[in-house]
Amino acid sequence: MRLFSGLYAWTVHWAGHPRAPWALGGLSAAESSFFPIPPDALLMPMSLARPERALRFAAIATLASVLGGLLGYALGALALSLVAPWIEAAGYAPAYARGVEWAREWGFWVMLVAGFSPIPYKVFTIAAGAAGIPLIPFVAASLIGRGARFFLVAGVIAWGGARLEPWLRRHVEWLGWLSVAALAAGILWLQLG
Question: Are 103 and 131 in contact (CB under 8 A)?
Fold first, then answer.
């Protein structure tokens, strides 16, 4: 099944659009609080299309992701009853319960790891608010974790540039399905761990 090739071609084409940074910021903020698609899906082709702006794109993704994380934090702290049905319907309830438990136990460190890893960050932003992690450590961990992830992705893509694009085009299906498998493994690990 060839799902990712067409999506990759469309995204690379769209990544050069003048409004692409706004879309990246919106996607980054939404993914940190409620949306399922990670910003890497847009950050990578944007960094490939404009390698000289890759670090700027990483900064946009980082700042917008932290702002979206603050929305997730606020939902967990102030409106948990509104998001609880969504958490349940999305199948995140076990992961969310574990996220709250880990947030209470490890605070800053769990947010740092969640910000960098491929596991659903939104689960942890909401859990952090519900667990009452202090806001300053939450923001600091989010900036470091999300920044490390996005600057690493953008930097590697910009560095590889034109040399990397043919390889990506050849292996996009394999990489796409590998990403889906990694996400599924992360969710399973959260639910069973």
Answer: yes
Which pLDDT score is estimated for 128? 93
How far is it, in rounded angstroms, from Cα 74 to Cα 72? 5
Model confidence pLDDT, tens digit, residues 52-99 = 999 999 999 999 999 999 999 999 999 888 888 888 887 878 878 888
Nearest to 123 by CA among 171, 67, 183, 76: 76
Residues with Cβ within 8 Å of residue 87, at least 6 apart in sequence: 93, 96, 123, 126
> In this model, does residue 1 exceed pLDDT 60?
no
Based on the structure, what is the number of domains in the chain? 1
Predicted pLDDT of residue 60: 97
Domain that holds residue 75: 4-192
CA distance 7 to 96: 30
CA angle 153, 117, 79 (to 5 degrees): 115
